[in-house]
Amino acid sequence: MDPISPLEQALHAARALVLADLVAGEVAEADVVSLVEESVVQRRWWVEQWPDGAAYVAGLVAQDVQDALLERYGRWPLCPVCGGGDPHALDVEPELGPDPHWVCSQAGVKVAPVGALGRALGGPSS
């Protein structure tokens, strides 16, 4: 059996992290999981072109899914930090970098690493 390539490891990890956040937010329905798979397919091509970008894949997949959900369903994930005012979504920071986090831009705080949103939402962490 051949070892899993670093590219595949990065893609599998990104998939798992984003799925954990979707489960934590109770939005991991089949059509939403399909959005994750579509993003992973697109990002596979991207990271094949730029192998040094493998460390950025989790944040990019999270952003892709967030954008697709906005187009189809609305904002996700909603900020659990800000209690009042209009509901708003968290952002992924850095937009292109390693160690992506969900961040509330309005409050200026890191909420959770991508993949660990469950802690911020009051559930178990991944």
Can you describe this structure?
- Helix 1 runs antiparallel to helix 2, helix 1 crosses helix 3 and helix 2 crosses helix 3.
- The model has no long low-confidence stretch (mean pLDDT 91).
- The two termini are 28 Å apart.
- With 126 residues, the protein is mostly helical.
- It has a three-stranded antiparallel sheet.
- It is built from four helices and three strands.
- Helices cover 47% and strands 10% of the residues.
- The longest helix has 20 residues.
Rounded Rg: 14 Å
Query: Uncertain segments of ≥5 residues (pLDDT<50)?
Result: none
Strand content: 5-15%
Order of helices and strands: HHHEEEH
Helix content: 40-55%
**What is the terminal separation in angstroms?**
28 Å
State the total count of DSSP E strands.
3
The general outline is globular
Sum up the structure in keywords.
globular; three-stranded antiparallel beta sheet; single chain; 126 residues; mainly alpha
What's this model, at a glance?
The protein is 47% helix and 10% strand. It has four helices and three strands.
Tell me the layout of helices and strands.
Blueprint: H1 6-24, H2 30-49, H3 57-72, E1 91-93, E2 101-104, E3 109-113, H4 117-120
Antiparallel strand pairs: 1-2, 2-3
